[in-house]
Amino acid sequence: MALEPGTKLGRYEIRSKLGAGGMGEVYRARDEKLNRDVAIKVLPATLSESSDRLHRFEQEAQAAGALNHPNILVIYDVGTNENAPYVVSELLEGESLRDRLDHGALSTRKASDYGIQIARGLAAAHAKGIVHRDLKPDNLFITKDEHVKILDFGLAKLVQPSAEEAAQTDVATRKVHTDPGTVMGTAGYMAPEQVRGRAVDHRADIFSFGAVLYEMLSGRRAFHGDSAIETLNAILKEEPPAITDANPNIAPALERVVWHCLEKAPERRFQSASDVAFALESLSGVTSHASEQTLLRGAIPTPPRWTRERLIWLGVCVLLLVALAALAVAQFSRAETAGHAVRLALTTPDKSTFPAHVTVSPNGLLVAFTAGSAEGKRELWVRSLDADQAQPLGGTEGATSPFWSPDSRSIGYFANGKLFRVEAARGRPQVLCDVRENSGGTWNRDGVILFGGPDGLHRISAQGGIPELATKIDPKEEAHRWPYFLPNGRQFIFLGDAETTENHHVRIGTLDSPETQILFSAVTRVAYAPPGYLIYVNQGALVAHPFDVKSLRLTGDPTTLVEHVAEVGQNHNFDFSVSENGVLAFQTGSAKSQLVWFDRTGKRLEPVAEPDNYATVVLAPDGRRAATGLLDADGRQSDVWLIDLTRGTKARLTFDAQSDGDPIWSPDGKRIVFSSNRSADAHIHLYDTGITSTAGEQLLLSGNADDVPTSWSPDGKHILFTRFQSGSSGSVWSLATDNREAHPLLQSAEFEIAAAVFSPSGRFIAYSSDESGRSEVYVQPFPLTGEKWVISAGGGHLPLWRGDGRELFYINGDGKIMSAQINSDGGFDSVVTKQLFQADLARAPGYPYAVAPDGSRFLINAPAEAANPAPMTIVLNWPATVK
Asked: What's the confidence (pLDDT) of residue 289?
């Protein structure tokens, strides 16, 4: 029975019917708790007639819901309504692949693009042990932005008729297309082992994928008879007609991929969907004879028909080219030895913010960097050294810390709590995995990517999957960051980051063991550069240090290449990059910032105090003073300072040799709590501002973790803090000020929760969490009741309340100050969010902004005008500067 608009299924309200089929009816609905539209598929009630089958449905649906991949439909929830099971998923806009194929075959480029996306989705599911079993064009959806989504994962097995119900192998899904009464949508896509009723594994999906790819390229089904029985017999005994019969322009290499998927025996097919994706991605190099620039623009011309005579001539030409290349290399090497370095200045795109994260491709032809567009959207840009201007890569909003693939065709980067890869030829970004921080990546020729994190370096396939821990962290370290592969592709260098300067080390590791060894002490990321140098930053200067890659030893003394290299963000990410053939890229600049008042429209009002190395900034309850963490000249240690906002004067509060920072005011404005790493971990200290000597300071909380205070309750009874422990995500804790007992408030082993702040009434807390796959701002009652509201739309972090609790501010993924208008202090069901202005935030740790009590203006920690980085500098043949 159809559900009428307004019908309630738990917390979901039905809005309209979207469609129906053999697998059930689909409705548009509203999730009233999380304020979003969803799709609900109500499955046939026969599924619930057997308790075993219903239990199996729930298990399979929950397994499908655990999948988190951009090419798989996201499952939110499962339930039952009047004995009919239903599945709640994301709501998609677009059309099915079946609808698209009703108009005929797709272009080769489009079919390959869709095929790669489908294969990536299958690979992610197979990595978690989930097999689709019913892959076909009807279960593939193309969104309006050309993303392919695989539908009904895990459900095909559920709707198979039991042995008592039917003897056929046809799954009772909806009919597709024109033949009256007989040909079902599944019959033409079963693997032979499915037809025979045998046990299947992930290779059955690869066969079905081959049938779908065949249909996209040829415009006709691979196996199609006048009845289901004839179709199934064709799967067992026949081969499909050649794709070139329908489309003569199909490259032979692409056709071979299809045939390899459609092998009758599972052991003769591709053995993983990752291999299929890799084969399709590699075809641009096999099927194209375009120049490097043509490839970069994404053109894939039709390959010629190879005859025996052409192959002979090709062999002759290859031999000649090899000989000429060897001669050219020899001549270039001699010229390089005697030549001079050449410096170029690359300006930023028009009307964009200053670039950062500059990285040069291994072949030295391209430079990638991040920059904000005129609209305030920060994304990844690529520029060829012989081009007039850079081009943005669409879909890369929020990109940081990019790094190149060894063939200079792809770029890895981090954004919104995930690791991505994207083709430099303006490809579509692909999610590889979730990450806990953006601390650098490196990519070897075997398709292995290493990336940094607080529990060590992780390794993952360049095709995506589940990361594996690659290094073991030392107890004195807090993270392993900024890995860089050495030429053999097995060994790598990286920064062992620590709380104290003396425990920072550049280390060497190998893919064969989690054990690492110290190379030398430094607080910087490091890169290897042929013919034998380590490039790193020493006291603000970029240096080249001779390095024997065979013995793994530094030799000689470092040579300064440039002074005052800019630092990007936190964790010692200095802005430089080097290619394999003598191209060096870097930016210079200082880390100084300026505290500046802005109004709600983004108009600059007046600066506060002189430029300095400001970190977190927080206003006193009366709005007339501010506390800040002030970094030293090297950006390594900090102390807490107080600022008189009326006079613009600063007064130092702490004087310890270690780092003191992240201050928080008490409700009465007389005390400050802050985090200090005076012991092995960061502990919480309290300072009474009414006592001018160190007697006013006391240790408030210690333990085997790094604790960062974030908010003090209006009644003074509780302090919220974020706890970071090695090997786990950030969590929110509460510290009772009377007995100094700490208790976990919000924590999860799977995602990070941080930056919790009390509302002015003390009845609610706002915080950020990446539980949805990216950081969003949430609100919960305090004490916790189980209720929860998502406040941000499209990403958000670092929330702050207006003094009356009627407005909540946060920063979105593009660095914009956002406002969430709250109708009352007792509910958040009708929150309205809007953008206030694009904030130019300093690259410094902690909260980069504070809000006046009445919400009329914002104190922004902004880059000082003199501290903006200079244009990117490119040095050709940089080793000549050393010699």
From this structure: 29
